[in-house]
Amino acid sequence: MTTSGFVNDTFAASRLLSYSSDAPFLDLDYSRRLLFQIQHPNCFSWNTLMRAHSRRGSPHWALLLYRLMLGSDLVPDNHTCPILLQASSLRLGGLEGKQVHAHACKFGFDSDVYVVNTLVNMYSVCGDLEDARKVFDFSPVLDYVSWNSILAAYVQAGGVERAVEIFDRMPERNTIAENSMIVLFGRCKRVSDARKVFDGMGVRDVITWTAMISCYEQNWMFKEALEVFFEMNREGVWLDEIVMVSVLAACAHLGILKEGELVHGLIIRAGLDAYVNLHNALIHLYSSCEDIIAARRLFDSAGIVDQISWNSMISGYVKCGLVEEARKYFDAMPQKDVVSWSTMISGYSQHDQFSEALELFNEMQMESIRPDETTLVGVITASLRLSALEQGNGFMLI
Fold first, then answer.
1. What is the DSSP string of 242-278?
2. Statement: 1-141 belongs to CATH 1.25.40.10
3. What are 267-303's pLDDT values in tens digits?
4. CB atoms inside a 10 Å sphere around CB 389
5. Tell me, what DSSP letter sits at residue 4?
6. Backbone angles phi, psi at 272, to 5 degrees
7. Where are the domains of the chain?
8. Residue 37 has pLDDT above 70, yes or no
9. Measuring CA to CA, how many Å separate 85 from each of 4, 69, 105, 156?
10. Helix 144-157 crosses helix 175-187 at what angle (to 10 degrees)?
């Protein structure tokens, strides 16, 4: 390339650099060498390579290249700052981000709406909501992305009052903002507020419906979650695996197998039955409703089973009173977590096998598994009942 004189053609060299940076099969070392061979690399060339490093998970290189660019007496443009701010976000580098912010002001890009939006996002990701809000409040130009960005920051942080303030002030609400508020209200147990936003929406997408269903499910309003789901289905909205998991959880909590089987049929018709999380949700549904045969059929037919699958089977057998079958699954489980141990210990305790519960708890301690509240309830119950039985047997002997 050097012998051809190609590096002297800045436009052609920049295009080649752009291609090499975007090509996933080429190492960025090659792109850097190419940049340093260009006689007079322009801002586009530097931006291209900085963006590539940021996208490929090397934000430190993006920031280093910026310093080299400044050292070449080249002035950044309005595309440079957003690239560097995104790199700072990846590094969670608040200090680096502030330095880039200072440069944006120095070069007059602080009134560019794209730069403003990236600044709001960078400060939000770095956990600095105060500076994110300052950028937003003092910006002379705002668009719907600006409003969505600051709203998303408050939603992410759980700042419900600030989020409501921004939402109420929005010049024009959009589906993204409304969906965010439903999610936040659901998280904060303000279900009626979430429903008010939902009912007032002119356009609902699949995320809207999923958020409303999840809101009800998170707040133990399973009947209402199912009502929204069936309304969603009547509206002909595409059903994805996320909403199906929420609905199956609602059916499992209510113990309504008939509706669960209907949802199972919808999953098969939608071609979603290959998803592991849906398989787990279905196993949980059938085991919770004590249809252990259907649960086992699903477990055996699954291509991939994880801890959730195993735990659901153990829980299902325990619920059906088949504690020895549950123990077989427990023993066969490749990797046990605290839920596995707790379910099995509680199962023994619930079915009056108190010695087995305490023996298993001792094994759990030897495995250095930290017990949770469910474990301790099972162990305490087993200890008290076993002690009472031993005392009773003592009286019988007297």
1. HHHHHHHHHHHHHT-HHHHHHHHHHHHHTT-TT-HHH
2. yes
3. 999 888 888 899 999 999 999 999 999 999 999 998 8
4. 13
5. T
6. -105, 5
7. 1-141, 336-398
8. yes
9. 37, 16, 13, 19
10. 10
